[in-house]
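Q: what sequence does this backbone want?
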């Protein structure tokens, strides 16, 4: 039983666990000053359309810790969610992205969009987050449509009616919604329809297996076809090989993101990329 499992685990507080615990405690503590000390940086990963034109970019946070060096968001975001600091970090990410949006629109295209990742904690704690962001955009002469908010399947699955309404309020403000890491969770198509998602991002685990595994191909094909029937556009994540892009393009995939196009890069580097890439 689970009780028994729990019991046997309690005694095994290994030194690895201890140092892991200490590390997380240290990170949690240091994160508070990291914002003030400007240790966070936004990187951007370009997203191209079927013609190879850079039309969007995903904002991805980086933390340069003075002692520990670079720390992955996969590591520190969960800690920030537990401490509540994700609220401040999320606001910083949004403001920073707004700051860069104007430059990017000027450089690439007036319809250029930035997508930011939204933690379920932000969504739960900040009741007027979309309204607030919309008015911040408005003050800068930007529109809701300039922003895409990425959420994960878990958000849709576990949300209360209140949070569902919050997500739907996006629509009236023009802010677009993307479902991140699609295929790794358990969401049903009914949910996707209910939330009026604009983009579905196929998780890179499917893209990774495309050339090796016939099932991955079938699954990608099915995801794209159903998404399109629901009037949802599809972004493929983690595209590393031209062969993968070729297959996905043939399946009708709308947008491509991955190391094949570019790794996440600082804004200055993005502003030096050619507008048009030779895709495949
Ligand atoms: P995500 O939103 O799914 O972002 C995509 C991740 O895949 C990024 O990792 C990106 O660098 C990586 N990636 C992109 N293309 C490729 C590829 O071709 N191959 C491989 N192997 N990886 C690729 P990153 O930047 O380390 O971010 C990890 C996760 O941390 C993100 O996953 C997102 O869930 C979270 N995250 C990042 N920035 C933020 C943020 O500002 N706020 C919140 N709440 N979460 C964030
Ligand atoms: Mg994302
Ligand atoms: Mg993703
Ligand atoms: Mg991911």
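A:
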């Amino acid at each position: 039983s689970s009780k028994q499992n729990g019991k046997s685990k309690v005694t095994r507080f290994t030194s690895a666990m201890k140092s892991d615990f200490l590390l997380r405690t240290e990170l949690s503590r240091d994160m508070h000053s990291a914002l003030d000390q400007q240790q966070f940086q936004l990187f951007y990963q370009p997203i191209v359309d079927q013609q190879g034109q850079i039309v969007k970019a995903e904002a991805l946070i980086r933390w340069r810790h003075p002692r520990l060096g670079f720390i992955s968001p996969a590591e520190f975001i969960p800690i920030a969610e537990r401490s509540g600091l994700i609220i401040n970090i999320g606001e910083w990410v949004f403001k920073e992205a707004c700051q860069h949006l104007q430059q990017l629109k000027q450089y690439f295209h007036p319809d250029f969009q930035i997508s930011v990742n939204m933690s379920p904690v932000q969504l739960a704690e900040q009741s007027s987050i979309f309204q607030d962001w919309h008015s911040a955009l408005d003050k800068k002469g930007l529109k809701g449509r300039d922003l895409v908010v990425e959420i994960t399947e878990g958000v849709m699955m576990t949300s209360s009616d209140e949070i569902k309404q919050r997500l739907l309020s996006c629509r009236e403000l023009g802010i677009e919604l993307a479902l991140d890491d699609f295929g790794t969770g358990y969401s049903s198509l009914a949910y996707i329809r209910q939330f009026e998602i604009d983009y579905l991002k196929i998780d890179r685990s499917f893209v990774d297996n495309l050339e090796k595994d016939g099932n991955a191909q079938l699954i990608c094909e099915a995801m794209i076809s159903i998404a399109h029937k629901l009037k949802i556009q599809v972004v493929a994540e983690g595209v590393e090989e031209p062969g993968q892009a070729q297959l996905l393009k043939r399946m009708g995939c709308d947008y491509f993101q991955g190391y094949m196009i570019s790794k996440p890069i600082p804004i200055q580097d993005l502003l030096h990329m050619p507008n048009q890439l030779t895709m495949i």
